[in-house]
UniProtKB/TrEMBL annotation:
Free-text function comment from the UniProt entry: Involved in sporophytic self-incompatibility system (the inability of flowering plants to achieve self-fertilization).
Membrane topology: Single-pass type I membrane protein
Domain Apple, first and last residues per copy: 346-423
GO MF annotations in UniProt: protein serine/threonine kinase activity
Assigned EC number: 2.7.11.1
Keyword Disulfide bond: yes
Enzyme class per UniProt: transferase
One Gene Ontology cellular component annotation held by this UniProt entry: membrane
Any one of the GO BP annotations: recognition of pollen
Subcellular localization(s) per the UniProt record: Membrane
SUPFAM superfamilies: alpha-D-mannose-specific plant lectins (SSF51110)
Name under which the protein is recorded: non-specific serine/threonine protein kinase
Amino acid sequence: MAMPMTHLLVFVLALLSALALPSSAASGSTLTQSGALTGDQTLASPGDAFRLGLFPASNRSRWFLGIWFTVSPDTVIWVANRDRPLTSPSGVVEVSGGGALVLRDGASNNDTVWSSSSNSSASAAAVDGAVAELQNTGNLVLTDAAGAVLWQSFEHPANTFLPEMRVGRSLRTGAEWSLSSWRGADDPSPGDFRYVMDARGAPELHVWSRGRKTYRTGPWNGVRFSGIPEMTTFEDMFEFQFTATADEVSYMFRNRDGSPMSRVLLNESGVMQRMVWDRASGSWSNFWSGPRDQCDSYGRCGAFGVCNVVDAVVCGCIGGFAPRSAAEWYMRNTSGGCARRTPLQCGAGGGDGFYVLRGVKLPDTHSSAVDAGATLQECARRCLADCNCTAYSAADIRGGGSGCIQWFGDLVDISMSGLRSLN
Ligand SMILES: *[C@@H]1O[C@H](CO)[C@@H](O)[C@H](O)[C@H]1NC(C)=O
Ligand SMILES: *[C@@H]1O[C@H](CO)[C@@H](O)[C@H](O)[C@H]1NC(C)=O
Ligand SMILES: *[C@@H]1O[C@H](CO)[C@@H](O)[C@H](O)[C@H]1NC(C)=O
Ligand SMILES: *[C@@H]1O[C@H](CO)[C@@H](O)[C@H](O)[C@H]1NC(C)=O
Ligand SMILES: *[C@@H]1O[C@H](CO)[C@@H](O)[C@H](O)[C@H]1NC(C)=O
Ligand SMILES: *[C@@H]1O[C@H](CO)[C@@H](O)[C@H](O)[C@H]1NC(C)=O
């Protein structure tokens, strides 16, 4: 009796896996000007970690051109026509004579629904030998005959940040590499949340929702983001790289050799989620998410307040400060923040000094200034001499601390991490 049972099981499993992979018609990793991708055909990256093709949403009533993980087809990492879905899978993907990647609607006169080029001018000069390739990083790269990059999907992110991809901005060209959330689990059109680099002062990454800042990573401190001490716990898997030059401010990560596949998602609730593929269970494991707790909620304790989730009362004031309105704080309304107990002397007769805060997420750096070359002692001297300077810290914590960040005006969004062992 045991034998037929085993055979039956194998048969059912084989049938299930055949059903689970309907779009098996991969046609290599490149698309040339003489080829086209239609219906359920896909491009597969070398090694087949990623696929490019059409995928359905809203009960197969809307279709999008996208890139997904081959082992996890529901995990779409990039979408071309986010705002203009096709109503059927009769799309045609081509590399145009002008050297653009285009999506046409076969059910509507082959109208162009999406193009990698914003120049839709019919008179666009011909670009011969253009090729689109889905690379093994998941980057879709369009090159001309000489191999020069015409366009790449990594410079036009959707809601997902992958290894080798940058978020940030080019200060030379003004190009911005930012994420935007989907509108819903089944709707890839841009939602309310954006993940962007604020390149002013000490650069840091922010989540914005409808013109309001909701979350900050804190500035880069040479090792990690000041507000994400957990980063040190997965350094064995990823290598982090922060670039701040006159040309570019950007952040990227790489998978170390042998590390499992990973991604960082800005989800539809405005939460950043770092996920790692668990081969054993065949599912994504959530490694980190931010905002992590109520102290990560931007400006939770107001100006000059300090948030601490492990305290019974979450909001406190920096030493030397008291609630601006005792009555409001009594009612747990901390939005008014804290005020100085004693006005600054500003050089007149001396007497001013600093209160030391350790192991905190540094305050919002939007109105800060950085001098990477100054020493910490010089930084303190400058801050004390400038009546507008409210705080200072090292810009880089390595080797005992170097460089100088100076804050001017209100100090907003300071929090104790609650992860003392990591600070
Ligand atoms: C999805 O489409 C199928 C077939 O057209 C239909 O029977 C089903 O009710 C639809 N489901 C939803 C949630 O609209
Ligand atoms: C649309 O494009 C496809 C592929 O290039 C072609 O076979 C088809 O004839 C075109 N249809 C129309 C209406 O032009
Ligand atoms: C579009 O392409 C045409 C022809 O190559 C060129 O003259 C025009 O400047 C381009 N427009 C833009 C906005 O790039
Ligand atoms: C976003 O991520 C958070 C944290 O992992 C999770 O609680 C929340 O349900 C997610 N939202 C969506 C829409 O998936
Ligand atoms: C909290 O205090 C601020 C001023 O500090 C005030 O504008 C706001 O209305 C108060 N919120 C509530 C819910 O009372
Ligand atoms: C301090 O700020 C005020 C107002 O923004 C400005 O007028 C003044 O020049 C600043 N002082 C210094 C020393 O930067």
